[in-house]
């Protein structure tokens, strides 16, 4: 049984929001749920007494998916490949798992972290265990890190295998996630408003980067990145506010109140991209998110490329492959 709560926005709306509630007793349906919202998984029932009784209440705010999940029976679950950043944060019980050769036990006091490009396998997820499964789109999280540092980064982010959720930045982030979880079933929540949801999702992205150890952590906490000039910030803001607009460098220079040459030099020094390169960077991130979560019967590579301002499909495909290491059609097919 599937129940859907709250708005699901169409492309072109300010920010996509989805809320769902699942109650599933069939193994194949449970595997399909995991594939739709998380990853292709191997899921097997280990319990000889209790049947599967999957309960999952889930919310998706753009690039962030948070699911409150309990299987209701002992199961073994694993994914051969994770293509996003993922957190397991149990509310009750514990989950032991293997990822990149390390064994990690997630509990209500410690969350487990999984990086893209490898698999993860839990030997047993007990019937009593209830956990939040939190998925972050890889491109968007890496772009957020780049924005916080004020310079491009080369992913993936090498997060530590786990982090403490009982104090410091880990506790703060845990509370933010739990607030979102508590609002899943509230149809009147402010978090269902696209402008609020977008900023909250961005806070979750940034908060994770400060809560978990990684190779850029010292650079994030050592000092604030150099402040970009007002003119550069203005151009960045208008592009991020309306990434499908057919901006030109000349138009952005007029908006910023500087010459084209000055704007180009400002972006080179303070952003690491040209103005048009930065716009392409933003658009590619949104296009990838839609390719990974297409609307059946509507979304094609061409439709998504054109919707995000790419007029030439060949150049879109080449830029996409260079950044993500696969073709847009491969992403759309889920491979």
Helix-strand blueprint:
Layout lengths: L1 E4 L11 E8 L2 H11 L4 E4 L8 E8 L2 E7 L4 E8 L2 E8 L2 E5 L2 E5 L3 E5 L3 E8 L4 E7 L1 H12 L12 E3 L3 H15 L11 H18 L5 H6 L7 H12 L7 H8 L3 H11 L4 H18 L8 H7 L5 H12 L3 H6 L2
Antiparallel strand pairs: 1-2, 2-4, 3-6, 4-5, 5-12, 6-11, 7-10, 7-12, 8-9, 8-11, 10-13
Describe the protein.
The protein has helices at residues 27-37, 138-149, 168-182, 194-211, 217-222, 230-241, 249-256, 260-270, 275-292, 301-307, 313-324, 328-333, and strands at residues 2-5, 17-24, 42-45, 54-61, 64-70, 75-82, 85-92, 95-99, 102-106, 110-114, 118-125, 130-136, 162-164. It is an alpha+beta fold and 335 residues long. It has two domains: 2-211, Jelly Rolls (Sandwich); 230-333, Arc Repressor Mutant, subunit A. The strands form two sheets. Strands 1-2-4-5-12-7-10-13 form an eight-stranded antiparallel sheet, sandwiched between helices. It has a five-stranded antiparallel sheet with strand order 3-6-11-8-9, with helices on one face. Helix 2 packs across helix 4 (194-211) and helix 6 packs parallel to helix 9. The two termini are 28 Å apart. The model is unreliable at 1-13 (pLDDT under 50). Residues 233-334 form the HTH araC/xylS-type domain. Keywords: DNA-binding, Transcription, Transcription regulation. InterPro entries: AraC-bd_2, AraC_XylS_family_regulators, Homeodomain-like_sf, HTH_AraC, HTH_AraC-typ_CS. It comes from Asanoa ishikariensis.
């Amino acid at each position: 049984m599937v129940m859907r709560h709250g708005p699901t926005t169409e492309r072109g709306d300010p920010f996509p929001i989805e809320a769902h509630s699942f109650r599933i007793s069939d193994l194949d349906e449970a595997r399909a749920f995991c594939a739709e919202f998380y990853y292709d998984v191997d899921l097997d029932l280990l319990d000889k007494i209790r049947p599967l009784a999957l309960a999952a209440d889930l919310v998706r705010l753009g690039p962030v998916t948070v699911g409150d999940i309990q299987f209701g029976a002992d199961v073994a679950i694993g994914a051969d490949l994770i293509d996003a950043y993922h957190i397991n944060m149990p509310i009750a019980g514990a989950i032991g798992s293997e990822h990149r050769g390390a064994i990690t036990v997630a509990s209500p006091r410690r969350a487990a972290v999984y990086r893209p490009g490898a698999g993860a396998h839990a030997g047993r997820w007990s019937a009593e265990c209830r956990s939040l499964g939190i998925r972050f789109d890889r491109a968007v999280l890496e772009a957020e890190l780049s924005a916080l540092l004020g310079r491009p980064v080369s992913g993936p982010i090498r997060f530590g295998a786990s982090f403490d959720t009982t104090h410091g930045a880990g506790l703060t982030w845990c509370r933010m996630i739990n607030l979102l979880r508590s609002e899943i079933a509230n149809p009147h929540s402010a978090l269902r408003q696209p402008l609020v949801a977008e900023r909250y999702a961005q806070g979750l992205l940034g908060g994770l980067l400060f809560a978990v150890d990684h190779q850029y952590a010292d650079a994030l906490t050592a000092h604030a990145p150099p402040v970009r000039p007002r003119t550069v910030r203005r151009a960045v803001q208008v592009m991020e506010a309306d990434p499908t607009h057919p901006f030109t460098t000349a138009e952005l220079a007029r908006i910023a109140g500087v010459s084209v040459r000055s704007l180009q030099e400002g972006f080179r020094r303070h952003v690491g991209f040209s103005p048009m390169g930065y716009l392409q960077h933003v658009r590619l991130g949104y296009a990838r998110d839609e390719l990974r979560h297409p609307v059946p019967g509507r979304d094609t590579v061409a439709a998504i490329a054109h919707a995000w301002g790419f007029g030439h499909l060949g150049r879109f495909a080449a830029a996409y492959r260079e950044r993500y290491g696969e073709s847009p059609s491969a992403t759309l097919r889920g491979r």
